[in-house]
Amino acid sequence: MRPSERSFARRIDLTSLQLFVAVCELGSIGRAAEREFIAASAVSKRLSDLEATLETPLLYRHTRGVNLTPAGESLLHHARSVLFSLEKMQAELSEYADGVRGHVRIHANISAIVQFLPEDLGAFSQDHPQVKIDLEEHLSTEVLRAVQEGAADLGICNVSSAGGHELQTLAYRHDELVLIVPRGHALAKQEAVAFEDTLEFDHVGLHSNSSIYLAMREAAAAAGRSIRLRIHVTGLDAMCRMIHNGLGVGVMPRRAFTLMHGVGDLECVRLTDAWATRDIRLVARDFSTLPLTARLLVDHLRERAEKGELLAA
Predict the structure, then answer these.
(1) By C-alpha distance, which of 124, 146, 149, 125 is closest to 136?
(2) Model pLDDT, residue 310
(3) SS3 92
(4) Any idea what the Cα angle at residue 280 is, between residues 275 and 284, rounded to 5°?
(5) For the segment 139-172, what is each residue's pLDDT rounded down to a tens digit?
(6) What is the pTM of this model?
(7) Cβ 132 vs Cβ 93: under 8 Å
(8) DSSP characters for 105-133?
(9) What mean pLDDT is predicted for residues 204-209?
(10) d(Cα 229, Cα 248) in Å, to the nearest integer?
(11) pLDDT tens across 259-274, in order?
């Protein structure tokens, strides 16, 4: 942080920001003063001081209340973000007082969450019950962005489809994409099929920015074809139900399909394309600088992955 930025941070008063947000939400200095149990004159003085600090008007004052200036609109957005971050910090720190000895924030893609993380994180929690794990599902590109920006300590995703980045990665798991078709479909009795041969049929696809759909679209483009997409879904269970009801065929990880066995009368067919075999990797800005609890989790996940590969061999 540059000296000018540090000076600005010191001049911004958090109480004034909180009062500013209250005035914006209620549209009146008087009503905000009542809600915050402070004199209206004191609220008005703090707002004036805030405008002086920022060297720009924030509010249009009139007899019926206040309206935001363009600068006020911008400040409201940032003030809410700052206050939300403070509330989150207080909540997380209070957990340490309650006995939580660590906190790991993970963002992962749907393939990792459905196939591997329930068992792997469950085993870690049994060994380390006082470590809190926050897990959020995101697209692979969003996982990488969250790690880069510090919103997540650890990412778990397919990095090959997400473009260039400067993050560190470690091997975690492999997954295999397969074609899911209704039982009795023309491709159901095939032992294996090239993705290009599926393009004459309607498809049920995941989110348009998901790594699986991006790989499908690239493969179709390489073949000079396009995907006859019938519908986009956000979950693998929804995909199975759509395929079961005749809306098309779809591509998903084999293990995920096995775990959801019974969601529809379906068959899976192996894809012969090289891109159908993928690496799911652990991602961090710098594994060596992760907090101890996060490093313990990384070691645990890699050990579980190695044992899983040995059992599968």
Answers:
(1) 146
(2) 56
(3) helix
(4) 135
(5) 888 999 999 988 899 999 988 765 667 899 999 9
(6) 0.65
(7) no
(8) EEEE-HHHHHHTHHHHHHHHHHH-TTEEE
(9) 88
(10) 8
(11) 887 777 899 999 999 9
- In angstroms, rounded to a whole number, what is the distance separating the alpha carbons of residues 117 and 290? 20
Among all chains, which residue has been given the structure tokens 């652990």? 282
pLDDT of residue 262: 72
Which residues are bridge partners to 62 per DSSP? 65
Q: Which of 166, 197, 189 lies closest to 286 in space, CA to CA? A: 166
CB atoms closer than 10 angstroms to residue 11? 12
pLDDT of 297 over the 80 cut: yes
Question: Would the CA dihedral through 226, 231, 232, 235 be positive or negative?
Answer: negative
Task: Give the pair of three-digit tokens for residue 230.
Answer: 């019938």
Question: Whole-angstrom Cα distance, residue 239 to residue 248?
Answer: 9
* 103's tokens: 């906190």
Give tens-digit pLDDT for 1-46. Answer: 455 556 777 888 889 999 999 999 999 999 999 999 999 999 999 9
**Region of residue 23 (left: phi > 0; alpha: psi -120 to 50; beta: else):** alpha
Contacts of residue 172, defined as CB under 8 A and 6 or more positions apart, other chains included, come to 112, 116, 156, 279, 280, 281, 282, 301, 302, 305
Strands 154-157 and 277-284: antiparallel
Which amino acid, residue 52? A
What is the secondary structure of 248-262 as a DSSP string? Answer: -BEEEEHHHHHHTTT
- Residue that wins the pLDDT comparison between 166 and 52: 52
Query: Residue type at 11?
Result: R
Would you say 198 and 186 are in contact if contact means Cβ atoms under 8 Å apart? no
